[in-house]
Amino acid sequence: MKKILFNLSVLPLAVFMISWGFLSKKEIDWSYYSTNGLDLYFDVPFEYDYDEVLPEIHYYPVLGKSFMGFKDALGFKESQNNYFVVNDFGYMGKYQFGKSTLKQIGIRNHDEFLNNPELQESAVNVYLARNKWVLRNDIQRYSGKYIGGVHITESGILAAAHLAGPGNVKRFLRSGGADEFSDGFGTSVKHYLRKFSGYDTSHIVPKKDAKVKV
């Protein structure tokens, strides 16, 4: 009897819900969702149009004051990072090496050097190690001090030695900034000391008479 009474009480509710569903469907205006009459454009470029539609994007790592950042900044200053350029004074490659310096570090084939980026990277690493050995006492003595208004750091000293040679850097430091060398383009030791200050070159191992393995 309880089951019969329960079914009789639920039945009218079920009939109402079903009827309301049919009525609701009839009341919905589906034309509201129609795309008829709308200007729709879904043009997809052909494969040969991709380069024109999507510009090429380059991503550059943030090198900061790392050793790689130091070399990148030095190379850009010297040649805008062009491995294959020779300037008006005959200096070659990304880091603008002269022939006498190349001879010091064991490179005699200049054509091979100019056309070999890997060899150029080896050359700058060796030259930095060599100059750090020559300037080791000056690095220890003057790092952290101000000379000629410039804060002296190891990386600045090494960059200045790349520009002017270690002898000219010694003269600048030991004269208190009075004896200052500038290259053929007018770039001074002081400028390189300031521009390349504060990079991490601590891992460079000083090495007397360092040579490139060719």
Characterization of this structure:
By secondary structure, the protein is an all-alpha fold. The protein has a domain at 67-195: Lysozyme, CATH 1.10.530. The chain is built from 10 helices and 2 strands; from the N terminus they run αααααααββααα. A two-stranded antiparallel sheet has the order 1-2. Helix 6 (117-134) crosses helix 8 (154-164), helix 8 (154-164) crosses helix 9 (166-174) and helix 8 (154-164) runs antiparallel to helix 10 (189-195). The radius of gyration is 36 Å and the shape is elongated. The termini are far apart. The mean pLDDT is 84.
Features:
214 residues; mainly alpha; Lysozyme; two-stranded antiparallel sheet; 50% helix; elongated
The string of secondary-structure elements, in order, is HHHHHHHEEHHH
Architecture of the domain at 67-195 in CATH?
A: Orthogonal Bundle
Arithmetic mean pLDDT: 84
- Low-pLDDT stretches are none
How would you summarize what this structure contains?
By secondary structure, the protein is mainly alpha-helical. 50% of the residues lie in helices and 2% in strands. It starts with a helix and ends in a 19-residue tail after the last helix.
Secondary-structure topology with pairs:
Layout: H1 2-27, H2 50-53, H3 67-79, H4 99-104, H5 110-114, H6 117-134, H7 136-142, E1 146-147, E2 150-151, H8 154-164, H9 166-174, H10 189-195
